[in-house]
Amino acid sequence: MKVPDFAEPMAITEEECRKNCLDNCSCTAYAFYVGIGCMQWSGILIDSEQLPLDGTNLYIRVPNSEHDTKRGFKVAIASTVSAAAVLLALCVCLCWKCIAKHKGNEQQAKLSRMEEVHKVEDMVTVTMNQAKFEKLPLYTYEALANATDNFHSNKIIGKGGFGPVYKGKLFDGLEIAVKRLSNSSTQGIEEFMNEVMVISKLQHRNLVRLLGCCVEREEKMLVYEYMPNKSLDAYLFDANKPNILDWRRRVIIVEGIGRALLYLHRDSRLKIIHRDLKASNILLDEELKPKLSDFGFARIFGGNQDQANTNRVAGTYGYMAPEYAMEGRFSEKSDVYSFGVLLLEIVSGRRNTTFYSDENELSMPGHAWKSWNENEAAKLIDPAIFDLGAITEMLRYIHVGLLCVQESAKDRPDVSAVLLMLTSEISNLPRPKFPAYTGRIGFSEKSSRQRAYTINDMSLSSIEGR
Protein backbone atom coordinates (compact mmCIF):
# COMPACT_ATOMS: atom_id res chain seq x y z
CA MET A 1 0.00 0.00 0.00
CA LYS A 2 0.83 3.68 -0.31
CA VAL A 3 0.42 4.59 3.33
CA PRO A 4 -2.04 7.37 4.31
CA ASP A 5 -1.02 10.96 4.99
CA PHE A 6 -0.50 12.52 8.43
CA ALA A 7 1.38 9.61 9.97
CA GLU A 8 2.74 9.72 13.51
CA PRO A 9 6.29 8.32 13.24
CA MET A 10 7.84 6.42 16.17
CA ALA A 11 11.40 5.25 16.66
CA ILE A 12 10.52 1.67 17.74
CA THR A 13 10.80 -1.86 16.31
CA GLU A 14 8.13 -3.48 14.14
CA GLU A 15 6.87 -5.72 16.96
CA GLU A 16 6.79 -2.78 19.37
CA CYS A 17 4.92 -0.79 16.71
CA ARG A 18 2.23 -3.50 16.49
CA LYS A 19 1.88 -3.82 20.26
CA ASN A 20 1.79 -0.04 20.73
CA CYS A 21 -1.08 0.28 18.24
CA LEU A 22 -3.06 -2.60 19.80
CA ASP A 23 -2.66 -1.08 23.27
CA ASN A 24 -3.82 2.36 22.06
CA CYS A 25 -7.60 2.57 21.56
CA SER A 26 -7.30 5.61 19.29
CA CYS A 27 -4.84 3.87 16.91
CA THR A 28 -6.61 3.20 13.59
CA ALA A 29 -3.72 1.59 11.70
CA TYR A 30 0.02 1.08 11.67
CA ALA A 31 2.80 0.28 9.18
CA PHE A 32 6.49 -0.39 9.38
CA TYR A 33 8.53 1.05 6.52
CA VAL A 34 12.19 0.05 6.14
CA GLY A 35 14.26 3.23 6.31
CA ILE A 36 11.50 5.21 8.02
CA GLY A 37 10.36 2.92 10.84
CA CYS A 38 7.06 2.72 12.68
CA MET A 39 4.14 4.90 11.51
CA GLN A 40 0.73 5.05 13.18
CA TRP A 41 -2.56 6.78 12.36
CA SER A 42 -5.63 7.84 14.32
CA GLY A 43 -8.98 8.82 12.86
CA ILE A 44 -9.74 8.73 9.14
CA LEU A 45 -7.09 7.30 6.77
CA ILE A 46 -6.52 9.87 4.02
CA ASP A 47 -5.03 9.23 0.54
CA SER A 48 -4.14 5.56 0.75
CA GLU A 49 -4.03 3.28 -2.27
CA GLN A 50 -2.86 -0.13 -3.39
CA LEU A 51 0.32 -0.05 -5.48
CA PRO A 52 1.44 -2.58 -8.10
CA LEU A 53 5.03 -2.19 -6.88
CA ASP A 54 6.82 -0.80 -3.85
CA GLY A 55 4.78 0.36 -0.84
CA THR A 56 4.44 -1.56 2.41
CA ASN A 57 1.90 -3.56 4.42
CA LEU A 58 -0.79 -1.47 6.14
CA TYR A 59 -2.32 -3.06 9.25
CA ILE A 60 -5.80 -1.70 9.99
CA ARG A 61 -7.49 -2.10 13.38
CA VAL A 62 -10.82 -4.02 13.23
CA PRO A 63 -13.21 -5.29 15.94
CA ASN A 64 -12.15 -8.60 17.51
CA SER A 65 -15.56 -10.04 16.63
CA GLU A 66 -14.61 -10.09 12.97
CA HIS A 67 -12.01 -12.78 13.75
CA ASP A 68 -14.55 -15.09 15.45
CA THR A 69 -15.43 -18.14 13.30
CA LYS A 70 -19.04 -18.45 14.48
CA ARG A 71 -19.51 -14.80 13.96
CA GLY A 72 -17.98 -15.22 10.53
CA PHE A 73 -20.52 -17.98 9.71
CA LYS A 74 -23.40 -15.73 10.76
CA VAL A 75 -21.95 -12.91 8.75
CA ALA A 76 -21.72 -15.22 5.72
CA ILE A 77 -25.43 -16.13 6.03
CA ALA A 78 -26.40 -12.52 6.51
CA SER A 79 -24.27 -11.57 3.53
CA THR A 80 -26.03 -14.14 1.32
CA VAL A 81 -29.47 -12.86 2.30
CA SER A 82 -28.31 -9.30 1.83
CA ALA A 83 -26.90 -10.13 -1.60
CA ALA A 84 -30.26 -11.61 -2.67
CA ALA A 85 -32.07 -8.51 -1.43
CA VAL A 86 -29.62 -6.29 -3.25
CA LEU A 87 -30.11 -8.31 -6.46
CA LEU A 88 -33.90 -7.96 -6.20
CA ALA A 89 -33.56 -4.25 -5.52
CA LEU A 90 -31.24 -3.94 -8.50
CA CYS A 91 -33.81 -5.52 -10.80
CA VAL A 92 -36.50 -3.13 -9.56
CA CYS A 93 -34.10 -0.24 -9.97
CA LEU A 94 -33.29 -1.23 -13.58
CA CYS A 95 -36.99 -1.41 -14.45
CA TRP A 96 -37.55 1.99 -12.91
CA LYS A 97 -34.63 3.43 -14.86
CA CYS A 98 -36.04 2.13 -18.13
CA ILE A 99 -39.33 3.91 -17.44
CA ALA A 100 -37.88 7.20 -16.20
CA LYS A 101 -34.50 7.37 -18.01
CA HIS A 102 -35.40 10.63 -19.80
CA LYS A 103 -36.84 12.33 -16.74
CA GLY A 104 -34.59 11.97 -13.75
CA ASN A 105 -31.04 11.65 -15.09
CA GLU A 106 -30.09 15.30 -14.76
CA GLN A 107 -31.58 15.65 -11.28
CA GLN A 108 -29.96 12.40 -10.14
CA ALA A 109 -26.55 13.53 -11.40
CA LYS A 110 -26.95 16.82 -9.56
CA LEU A 111 -27.87 15.02 -6.35
CA SER A 112 -24.88 12.69 -6.75
CA ARG A 113 -22.52 15.64 -7.14
CA MET A 114 -24.00 17.27 -4.07
CA GLU A 115 -23.58 14.05 -2.10
CA GLU A 116 -19.93 13.82 -3.12
CA VAL A 117 -19.36 17.43 -2.08
CA HIS A 118 -21.02 16.77 1.25
CA LYS A 119 -18.89 13.67 1.74
CA VAL A 120 -15.72 15.70 1.17
CA GLU A 121 -16.94 18.46 3.49
CA ASP A 122 -17.85 15.89 6.13
CA MET A 123 -14.44 14.25 5.76
CA VAL A 124 -12.69 17.59 6.15
CA THR A 125 -14.80 18.56 9.17
CA VAL A 126 -14.44 15.18 10.88
CA THR A 127 -10.72 15.02 10.20
CA MET A 128 -10.27 18.54 11.51
CA ASN A 129 -12.11 17.63 14.68
CA GLN A 130 -10.12 14.45 15.13
CA ALA A 131 -6.90 16.38 14.57
CA LYS A 132 -8.00 18.65 17.43
CA PHE A 133 -8.64 21.81 15.45
CA GLU A 134 -11.58 22.79 17.65
CA LYS A 135 -9.95 26.09 18.61
CA LEU A 136 -9.45 27.15 14.97
CA PRO A 137 -12.30 29.52 13.99
CA LEU A 138 -14.53 28.38 11.12
CA TYR A 139 -15.68 31.27 8.92
CA THR A 140 -18.92 31.09 6.95
CA TYR A 141 -18.92 31.44 3.19
CA GLU A 142 -21.18 34.50 3.47
CA ALA A 143 -18.77 36.25 5.84
CA LEU A 144 -15.80 35.81 3.49
CA ALA A 145 -17.85 36.68 0.40
CA ASN A 146 -18.96 39.94 2.06
CA ALA A 147 -15.39 40.68 3.17
CA THR A 148 -14.05 40.33 -0.39
CA ASP A 149 -16.93 41.97 -2.33
CA ASN A 150 -18.11 38.52 -3.40
CA PHE A 151 -14.55 37.54 -4.38
CA HIS A 152 -14.26 40.38 -6.88
CA SER A 153 -11.28 40.24 -9.23
CA ASN A 154 -10.19 43.68 -8.00
CA LYS A 155 -9.59 42.10 -4.58
CA ILE A 156 -7.06 39.56 -5.88
CA ILE A 157 -3.65 40.33 -4.38
CA GLY A 158 -1.73 37.26 -5.48
CA LYS A 159 -1.88 33.81 -7.03
CA GLY A 160 -0.11 30.53 -6.40
CA GLY A 161 -0.47 26.78 -6.77
CA PHE A 162 -3.32 26.78 -4.23
CA GLY A 163 -5.36 29.40 -6.08
CA PRO A 164 -6.05 33.15 -5.85
CA VAL A 165 -5.49 35.18 -2.69
CA TYR A 166 -8.01 37.94 -1.91
CA LYS A 167 -7.76 40.96 0.32
CA GLY A 168 -10.78 41.35 2.57
CA LYS A 169 -12.17 43.25 5.52
CA LEU A 170 -14.40 41.58 8.08
CA PHE A 171 -17.42 43.20 9.68
CA ASP A 172 -15.34 44.26 12.70
CA GLY A 173 -12.81 46.04 10.45
CA LEU A 174 -10.09 43.38 10.60
CA GLU A 175 -8.16 43.12 7.33
CA ILE A 176 -7.56 39.56 6.14
CA ALA A 177 -6.04 37.59 3.28
CA VAL A 178 -8.19 34.74 1.94
CA LYS A 179 -6.57 31.84 0.06
CA ARG A 180 -9.25 30.18 -2.05
CA LEU A 181 -8.71 26.73 -3.53
CA SER A 182 -9.52 26.97 -7.24
CA ASN A 183 -10.93 24.17 -9.38
CA SER A 184 -7.82 24.29 -11.59
CA SER A 185 -5.45 24.27 -8.62
CA THR A 186 -2.30 22.14 -8.81
CA GLN A 187 -2.83 21.54 -5.10
CA GLY A 188 -5.94 20.11 -3.47
CA ILE A 189 -7.62 18.76 -0.38
CA GLU A 190 -4.42 17.09 0.82
CA GLU A 191 -2.44 20.35 0.78
CA PHE A 192 -5.40 22.23 2.29
CA MET A 193 -5.62 19.82 5.22
CA ASN A 194 -1.85 19.75 5.57
CA GLU A 195 -1.57 23.52 5.80
CA VAL A 196 -4.36 23.72 8.38
CA MET A 197 -2.90 20.92 10.47
CA VAL A 198 0.66 22.27 10.42
CA ILE A 199 0.28 26.00 10.88
CA SER A 200 -2.63 25.82 13.35
CA LYS A 201 -0.20 24.23 15.81
CA LEU A 202 2.53 26.88 15.41
CA GLN A 203 3.10 30.31 16.92
CA HIS A 204 6.11 32.47 16.14
CA ARG A 205 6.64 36.12 15.35
CA ASN A 206 8.22 35.21 11.99
CA LEU A 207 5.42 32.86 10.86
CA VAL A 208 2.28 34.21 9.21
CA ARG A 209 -0.75 33.74 11.48
CA LEU A 210 -3.65 31.53 10.38
CA LEU A 211 -6.92 33.05 11.61
CA GLY A 212 -9.31 30.32 10.47
CA CYS A 213 -10.76 28.46 7.50
CA CYS A 214 -13.96 27.81 5.57
CA VAL A 215 -15.17 24.42 4.30
CA GLU A 216 -18.75 25.28 3.35
CA ARG A 217 -20.43 24.40 0.05
CA GLU A 218 -17.77 23.43 -2.48
CA GLU A 219 -15.27 25.90 -1.04
CA LYS A 220 -11.96 25.32 0.72
CA MET A 221 -10.52 28.61 2.00
CA LEU A 222 -7.83 29.65 4.48
CA VAL A 223 -7.97 32.98 6.27
CA TYR A 224 -4.68 34.67 7.21
CA GLU A 225 -3.61 37.94 8.76
CA TYR A 226 -3.18 40.58 6.06
CA MET A 227 0.42 41.55 5.26
CA PRO A 228 0.44 45.09 3.80
CA ASN A 229 3.85 44.87 2.10
CA LYS A 230 3.16 41.57 0.31
CA SER A 231 6.11 39.29 -0.49
CA LEU A 232 9.88 39.70 -0.47
CA ASP A 233 10.32 39.06 -4.18
CA ALA A 234 8.20 42.13 -4.98
CA TYR A 235 10.93 44.38 -3.56
CA LEU A 236 13.99 42.23 -4.19
CA PHE A 237 13.63 41.55 -7.91
CA ASP A 238 11.46 44.38 -9.26
CA ALA A 239 13.78 46.98 -10.83
CA ASN A 240 10.89 49.43 -11.24
CA LYS A 241 10.30 49.71 -7.50
CA PRO A 242 12.28 52.13 -5.32
CA ASN A 243 15.05 50.42 -3.39
CA ILE A 244 13.74 50.37 0.18
CA LEU A 245 15.57 47.19 1.14
CA ASP A 246 18.96 48.56 2.14
CA TRP A 247 21.59 46.25 3.62
CA ARG A 248 20.41 46.63 7.23
CA ARG A 249 16.84 45.72 6.28
CA ARG A 250 18.07 42.69 4.35
CA VAL A 251 20.08 41.54 7.36
CA ILE A 252 16.94 41.80 9.52
CA ILE A 253 14.97 39.80 6.92
CA VAL A 254 17.62 37.06 6.71
CA GLU A 255 17.80 36.75 10.50
CA GLY A 256 14.00 36.62 10.76
CA ILE A 257 13.75 33.83 8.17
CA GLY A 258 16.54 31.96 9.96
CA ARG A 259 14.75 32.24 13.32
CA ALA A 260 11.52 30.96 11.73
CA LEU A 261 13.35 27.92 10.34
CA LEU A 262 15.08 27.31 13.67
CA TYR A 263 11.68 27.33 15.37
CA LEU A 264 10.26 24.86 12.85
CA HIS A 265 13.24 22.51 13.03
CA ARG A 266 14.15 22.65 16.72
CA ASP A 267 12.12 24.90 19.02
CA SER A 268 8.47 24.08 18.31
CA ARG A 269 6.76 21.07 19.87
CA LEU A 270 6.58 19.65 16.34
CA LYS A 271 9.49 19.25 13.97
CA ILE A 272 8.46 20.78 10.63
CA ILE A 273 10.21 20.63 7.25
CA HIS A 274 8.81 23.46 5.12
CA ARG A 275 9.85 22.11 1.67
CA ASP A 276 8.95 25.28 -0.28
CA LEU A 277 11.13 28.07 1.10
CA LYS A 278 11.50 30.87 -1.47
CA ALA A 279 11.25 34.65 -1.76
CA SER A 280 7.58 34.68 -2.78
CA ASN A 281 6.68 32.75 0.39
CA ILE A 282 8.30 35.37 2.64
CA LEU A 283 5.67 38.01 3.47
CA LEU A 284 6.55 41.43 4.88
CA ASP A 285 4.57 43.24 7.58
CA GLU A 286 4.12 46.99 7.95
CA GLU A 287 7.68 47.29 9.32
CA LEU A 288 9.12 45.11 6.50
CA LYS A 289 9.82 42.30 8.95
CA PRO A 290 9.55 38.81 7.43
CA LYS A 291 6.96 36.11 8.06
CA LEU A 292 7.23 32.67 6.52
CA SER A 293 4.03 31.46 4.82
CA ASP A 294 2.55 28.68 2.66
CA PHE A 295 2.73 25.39 4.56
CA GLY A 296 0.83 23.32 1.97
CA PHE A 297 3.88 21.11 1.31
CA ALA A 298 5.27 21.09 4.86
CA ARG A 299 5.80 17.79 6.65
CA ILE A 300 5.83 16.90 10.34
CA PHE A 301 8.63 14.76 11.74
CA GLY A 302 8.24 12.85 14.97
CA GLY A 303 10.47 11.34 17.63
CA ASN A 304 14.07 11.05 16.56
CA GLN A 305 13.26 11.08 12.84
CA ASP A 306 15.76 13.17 10.89
CA GLN A 307 14.80 12.45 7.28
CA ALA A 308 12.03 10.91 5.18
CA ASN A 309 11.33 9.75 1.65
CA THR A 310 8.44 10.63 -0.62
CA ASN A 311 7.21 9.60 -4.07
CA ARG A 312 5.61 13.01 -4.47
CA VAL A 313 8.28 15.68 -4.78
CA ALA A 314 6.77 19.11 -4.13
CA GLY A 315 8.36 22.54 -4.27
CA THR A 316 9.89 25.04 -6.70
CA TYR A 317 12.65 24.59 -9.28
CA GLY A 318 15.88 26.29 -8.27
CA TYR A 319 15.25 25.97 -4.53
CA MET A 320 15.16 22.15 -4.27
CA ALA A 321 18.06 20.30 -2.71
CA PRO A 322 19.49 17.67 -5.11
CA GLU A 323 18.75 14.67 -2.88
CA TYR A 324 15.12 15.80 -2.67
CA ALA A 325 14.58 16.63 -6.36
CA MET A 326 16.27 13.44 -7.59
CA GLU A 327 15.54 10.86 -4.90
CA GLY A 328 12.66 12.26 -2.83
CA ARG A 329 14.74 12.40 0.38
CA PHE A 330 14.05 15.46 2.52
CA SER A 331 15.26 16.64 5.91
CA GLU A 332 16.32 19.80 7.74
CA LYS A 333 19.19 20.04 5.28
CA SER A 334 16.68 20.34 2.41
CA ASP A 335 15.36 23.55 3.95
CA VAL A 336 18.95 24.68 4.60
CA TYR A 337 19.69 24.32 0.89
CA SER A 338 16.65 26.48 0.01
CA PHE A 339 17.73 29.01 2.64
CA GLY A 340 21.19 29.16 1.03
CA VAL A 341 19.72 29.94 -2.40
CA LEU A 342 17.48 32.58 -0.82
CA LEU A 343 20.47 34.07 1.03
CA LEU A 344 22.41 34.43 -2.23
CA GLU A 345 19.37 36.03 -3.89
CA ILE A 346 19.01 38.57 -1.06
CA VAL A 347 22.68 39.59 -1.27
CA SER A 348 22.75 39.76 -5.09
CA GLY A 349 19.27 41.18 -5.63
CA ARG A 350 18.86 38.72 -8.50
CA ARG A 351 16.51 35.79 -8.91
CA ASN A 352 18.16 32.38 -9.11
CA THR A 353 16.73 31.69 -12.58
CA THR A 354 18.15 34.88 -14.12
CA PHE A 355 21.65 33.39 -14.11
CA TYR A 356 20.60 30.85 -16.73
CA SER A 357 20.57 33.61 -19.34
CA ASP A 358 24.27 34.31 -18.81
CA GLU A 359 26.76 32.96 -21.33
CA ASN A 360 28.17 30.37 -18.95
CA GLU A 361 24.64 29.21 -18.04
CA LEU A 362 25.59 28.70 -14.41
CA SER A 363 22.96 28.52 -11.69
CA MET A 364 23.04 30.98 -8.80
CA PRO A 365 25.06 28.56 -6.58
CA GLY A 366 27.41 27.79 -9.48
CA HIS A 367 27.93 31.46 -10.34
CA ALA A 368 28.53 32.41 -6.70
CA TRP A 369 30.95 29.50 -6.14
CA LYS A 370 32.93 30.40 -9.29
CA SER A 371 33.15 34.07 -8.22
CA TRP A 372 34.17 33.12 -4.68
CA ASN A 373 36.94 30.81 -5.88
CA GLU A 374 38.28 33.54 -8.17
CA ASN A 375 38.25 36.04 -5.27
CA GLU A 376 35.60 38.08 -7.07
CA ALA A 377 32.66 37.41 -4.76
CA ALA A 378 32.15 41.16 -4.30
CA LYS A 379 30.87 41.30 -7.89
CA LEU A 380 27.87 39.26 -6.78
CA ILE A 381 26.66 41.97 -4.38
CA ASP A 382 23.65 44.04 -5.46
CA PRO A 383 25.04 47.44 -6.61
CA ALA A 384 22.06 49.14 -4.94
CA ILE A 385 23.32 48.12 -1.48
CA PHE A 386 27.08 47.94 -2.05
CA ASP A 387 28.81 49.56 0.93
CA LEU A 388 32.53 49.34 1.60
CA GLY A 389 31.81 49.68 5.32
CA ALA A 390 29.74 46.48 5.26
CA ILE A 391 31.71 44.55 2.61
CA THR A 392 33.12 42.06 5.15
CA GLU A 393 29.65 41.20 6.40
CA MET A 394 28.28 40.91 2.85
CA LEU A 395 31.09 38.52 1.84
CA ARG A 396 30.40 36.46 4.97
CA TYR A 397 26.76 36.12 3.93
CA ILE A 398 27.87 34.86 0.48
CA HIS A 399 30.28 32.42 2.16
CA VAL A 400 27.51 31.07 4.44
CA GLY A 401 25.13 30.83 1.48
CA LEU A 402 27.68 28.64 -0.34
CA LEU A 403 28.01 26.40 2.72
CA CYS A 404 24.23 25.92 2.66
CA VAL A 405 24.06 24.88 -1.01
CA GLN A 406 26.80 22.25 -0.96
CA GLU A 407 25.90 19.17 -2.96
CA SER A 408 26.06 16.70 -0.08
CA ALA A 409 23.47 17.19 2.66
CA LYS A 410 25.89 16.06 5.38
CA ASP A 411 28.27 18.90 4.46
CA ARG A 412 25.63 21.60 4.99
CA PRO A 413 25.36 23.22 8.44
CA ASP A 414 22.08 23.09 10.34
CA VAL A 415 20.05 26.26 10.84
CA SER A 416 21.38 26.96 14.34
CA ALA A 417 24.97 26.87 13.02
CA VAL A 418 23.98 29.07 10.07
CA LEU A 419 22.63 31.77 12.40
CA LEU A 420 25.81 31.67 14.48
CA MET A 421 27.91 32.01 11.33
CA LEU A 422 25.90 34.97 10.08
CA THR A 423 26.26 36.82 13.40
CA SER A 424 30.05 36.16 13.47
CA GLU A 425 29.79 34.01 16.60
CA ILE A 426 31.56 31.35 14.55
CA SER A 427 34.56 33.25 13.22
CA ASN A 428 36.43 30.61 11.21
CA LEU A 429 34.13 29.44 8.45
CA PRO A 430 34.97 26.19 6.64
CA ARG A 431 35.76 26.27 2.95
CA PRO A 432 32.62 25.45 0.93
CA LYS A 433 32.66 22.38 -1.27
CA PHE A 434 31.31 22.03 -4.78
CA PRO A 435 27.67 23.19 -4.85
CA ALA A 436 24.75 21.35 -6.40
CA TYR A 437 23.39 22.38 -9.83
CA THR A 438 26.58 24.18 -10.87
CA GLY A 439 25.56 24.03 -14.48
CA ARG A 440 22.15 24.39 -16.04
CA ILE A 441 21.05 20.83 -15.49
CA GLY A 442 17.60 19.34 -15.83
CA PHE A 443 15.86 16.78 -13.71
CA SER A 444 16.03 13.10 -14.53
CA GLU A 445 13.46 12.16 -17.13
CA LYS A 446 13.76 8.53 -16.03
CA SER A 447 12.44 9.31 -12.58
CA SER A 448 8.99 7.87 -11.91
CA ARG A 449 8.31 10.13 -8.96
CA GLN A 450 5.24 12.32 -9.00
CA ARG A 451 6.08 16.01 -8.69
CA ALA A 452 4.05 19.06 -7.72
CA TYR A 453 5.60 22.48 -8.20
CA THR A 454 4.35 25.81 -7.01
CA ILE A 455 3.93 28.70 -9.41
CA ASN A 456 6.81 31.01 -8.61
CA ASP A 457 6.27 33.62 -11.33
CA MET A 458 2.64 34.50 -10.54
CA SER A 459 2.99 35.98 -7.09
CA LEU A 460 4.03 39.46 -8.28
CA SER A 461 1.02 40.33 -10.39
CA SER A 462 -0.58 42.55 -7.76
CA ILE A 463 0.32 45.99 -6.52
CA GLU A 464 -1.22 45.34 -3.11
CA GLY A 465 0.02 43.41 -0.09
CA ARG A 466 -1.35 40.15 1.10
From TrEMBL:
Transmembrane regions listed in the UniProt entry: none
Residues annotated as domain Apple: 1-63
Subcellular location: Cell membrane; Membrane
Predominant place of localization: membrane
Pfam families, A to Z: PAN_2, PK_Tyr_Ser-Thr
Top-level taxon: Eukaryota
Residue stretches making up the Protein kinase domain: 151-434
Example GO molecular function: protein serine/threonine kinase activity
Enzyme class label: transferase
Entry GO terms, CC: plasma membrane
Topology in membrane: Single-pass membrane protein; Single-pass type I membrane protein
EC number: 2.7.11.1
Catalyzed reactions per annotation: L-threonyl-[protein] + ATP = O-phospho-L-threonyl-[protein] + ADP + H(+); L-seryl-[protein] + ATP = O-phospho-L-seryl-[protein] + ADP + H(+)
Keyword terms of this UniProt record: ATP-binding, Cell membrane, Disulfide bond, EGF-like domain, Glycoprotein, Kinase, Membrane, Nucleotide-binding, Receptor, Serine/threonine-protein kinase, Signal, Transferase, Transmembrane, Transmembrane helix
Record's protein name: non-specific serine/threonine protein kinase
